[in-house]
Amino acid sequence: MPKQFAKFLNPRVLVGELNKMAPLHTPILDLVYADQVNHPFSTIGYEDLVTSIKNIPLVSRGASSYAMPLDGNKLRFIEPQNLTPSHFIGANKLNDMKSFNEGQQKTYILNKVDQLRRTVRASKEALAIQSLTGKIEYGVRNADGAMEKYTVDFGNVQSTTISKKWDASGAKASDVIKDVGAMVAEIKKKSNATKFIGFIDFTTYAAIVDLCNNASTKLPIEVTEDSIVIGAVKLYVTAATYFDYVTKANKPLIAEKKVMVIGVDDGFRFYNCALDSLEADFAGIPFGVREVLKDDPEGEEIIGMARPMPIPNVNAICVSTCLQ
To answer: CB 3.0 to 4.6 Å from 270: which of 33, 111, 217, 243, for a disulfide?
Structure first.
């Protein structure tokens, strides 16, 4: 049985069609992992990672170069796992589609591709969210169909102590400025980040709004409908969640009563690693599609493909408890 949709799923043709599709908005991928790299290998070595950028000493003339230091206590390589969502199109459906003209067939199959694309993007976002805790613990289905836990430990993120919580009696808007500044200072101890953003939930957003409304003088805090700008730090308010297949529960981007500040320009990189696919020529690409013939029942499976891995810099992440 010949493949029915090869002319629509040809990689060169598909790239053009994907570029025409509506852009997908995901806060962590968009704001934190803007640096995306198509990696030629199926694993990521520690030497491939972007280490925290710090100044180094001068080297005297005639001396050897200064070798970039590697932390021997950290993991030596990471083996990313696969994302492979699929749609099965049975022979009965293919039989009915014989009456479709080429334009109708193309619309049908590209709608399936778009669903796969959206699923892959949402799954990448979930991995990116988990990575900001310093550890990925994500559900992975093994060859026997059982669900296991895939773990990558990047280390501990930074933290500060906020003694006067922002919803406590007597708290002032200026306390928020000092506390966010302290979080930036904590990051700067181990990082040379210069661009800082953060995330808060709606409860924290409301507490800051109350403090600003009660302030007797104008402060350098700008409140907008989706963020709060404190000096050079923009805190985005979000209710984003993802489904955790390990705990079988929805998990939030930012934990309740917490505030997260990130130095996003120091070491955050998202890798799209080489695919285990002859059709994709084993390339490292953000998203691929292949068409597989099936015998029992007869039909075709349209399979999305990606092998993603977010690499955070835990030294440039600070999470603190800001509410009571």
So the answer is: 33
